[in-house]
Amino acid sequence: MESNKGLTKVDLIFEKVDAHEALTKAFKMTNDEIIQQILESGLKGRGGAGFPTGLKWKYTAAEKEPVKYIVCNADEGEPGTFKDREILDRVSYKVYGGMVIAGKAINAKEGIVYLRGEYRFLLPKLMKELEIFHKMISEIGFDFRIKYCLGSGAYICGEESALFESIQGERGEPRNKPPYPTTSGVYGKPTSINNVETLVTAMMIIQHGAKRYTQLGTKDSRGSKVFSVSGDTPTPGIFELELGMSVQNFVTEFGDGDTKAVQVGGASGFCVPRKKFNETIIGFEGVPTGGSMKLFNSSRSMYNVLHNYLDFFAEESCGQCTPCRVDASSYLKELKR
Amino acid sequence: MKELSEKHGRKRDSLMPILQGIVERHNYLTDEAMVEVAKELDISAAEVYGTASFYTFLDTSVRGKYVIRVCKTITCAMKGKADILQTIEDVLKIKVGETTSDKMFSLIETNCIGWCHKAPAILINEIPYTELTTEKVVEIIKDYMHK
After folding, report:
1. How far apart are CA A197 and CA A93, in angstroms?
2. Residue among A81, A82, A296 with most chain B CBs within 10 A, to mutate
3. Closest Cα to residue A97, out of A10, A26, A190?
4. Given this model, what pLDDT does residue A146 score?
5. Residue B146 DSSP SS3
6. Residue range B99-121: average pLDDT?
């Protein structure tokens, strides 16, 4: 199937907005109106799993519990993604803004940003910006407070329930589901946990309206997305692109003329070989992604790539479930033979 | 320890920030430190060790004042990580996993630290250094030696 979308650069995530004005506007909306806008936008989680954000907010809002939480997942550990760091570094006020809007929608007064330990160097700056933000929302009359929790180098903590365990001071081992976070999340309270980029996107949807957002992307993959581009490319970095392009469109823009494979979605994602570039759409109808895009040219041994990934999983397995704990190491051993 | 638990509280969710605070000041967690934290929070030392041992940044073995973490994940591996690692080993005269005898440097490998577009990259304590060359990394390590 040929993609109906080309490659289009978008500027939504890093676009400057007047946060005071945007949040004052959001503050005047009812909780249902906010959730309705996000539902209509078709926004799906930008961390990689792609759960509809509006539904997450709707389910959490429906819980009667008086204490609820908004958690921002900034534990960006998937190999090849670095967009959340860039977003926090450049527009943290929009991350906080998204959290406040989500907080209003579900009736939460507290937000927690879980930042990966590898990004600790950013924390002093982020805290300073948070202080300014807190002052601003107090002026508007929002009763919402955000705090930071720092990770300590465990990949699995990007998984939502492992992340909650970590916030609570426990080993970062994922919980059994159900119950889902919307009913029992951090501290056992209803929690909406959203990726950094999702929260910023949500704020921009409230700012510009769902209608404008749905003009971008495809039926299954609405809007745009920030991609982390690395590997064999003359232009590595962060790019916000409209969803719905084929891997071929992507390679034409970012490849070095000799691309033989693209790893979409990090080590836990999909490896798209050259012969499938044309038919593979980057999005929920093809290869969904949290934004990690690694290009490999013909000088690279895919054996080495696989070896590197298995090494990663063998080390990062939290050890709780047998298939992952045992198999990652066994595959690695077999591969080495 | 007292100061850290004053700052972060004595509840179970204070545990991570307290352990992180100890590592920040003393480079790693000794058995004695973990026992003391357990007393402060009124939980068992096994609970403290259980949490600490889950997280690679909460080291429970001896670490130097400066912990060098070399990213070994795919893009850094493709962009010259092996040379960077070899160079650091040569300058510090230690192998991966070791600490210099003056307890100034520890050298370890780590998984993706989120700088693939500027590979190869390392962390020295919390500070990232990116787009490294063997020359650049020698200069950086020498700067730390004279700190």
Report:
1. 12
2. A82
3. A26
4. 98
5. coil
6. 97
For the segment B73-91, what is each residue's pLDDT rounded down to a tens digit? Answer: 999 999 999 999 999 999 9
pLDDT at residue A4, as a whole number = 53
Q: State the CB neighbour count (10 A cutoff) for residue A84.
A: 28
Tell me how close the Cα of A110 comes to any Cα of chain B, in angstroms. 16
Q: Which residue of A has its CA nearest to B70?
A: A118
Q: Is the pLDDT of residue B61 over 50?
A: yes
> Residue type at A251?
V
CB pairs under 8 A between A and B: 116
Q: Would an 8 Å CB–CB cutoff place A308 in contact with chain B?
A: yes
* Domain covering B66-145: architecture: 3-Layer(aba) Sandwich (3.40)
Low-confidence ranges of chain A (pLDDT < 70): 1-5
Instruction: Pick from B43, B78, B81, B109 the residue to mutate for testing the A interface (most A CBs within 10 Å).
Output: B78
A85 touching B (Cβ < 8 Å)? yes
* Cβ partners under 8 Å of residue B26, min gap 6: B33
ipTM of the complex: 0.97
Given the DSSP bridges, would you call strands B122-124 and B127-129 parallel, antiparallel or unpaired?
antiparallel
- Domain extent listing, chain B: 2-52, 66-145
In chain B, what percentage of residues exceed pLDDT 70?
100
Measure CB to CB from residue A300 to each of B50, B78, B112 and give the nearest one: B78
Q: Which of residues 15-74 of A touch B (CB under 8 A)?
A: none
pTM for this entry: 0.96
CA B93 to chain centre: 19
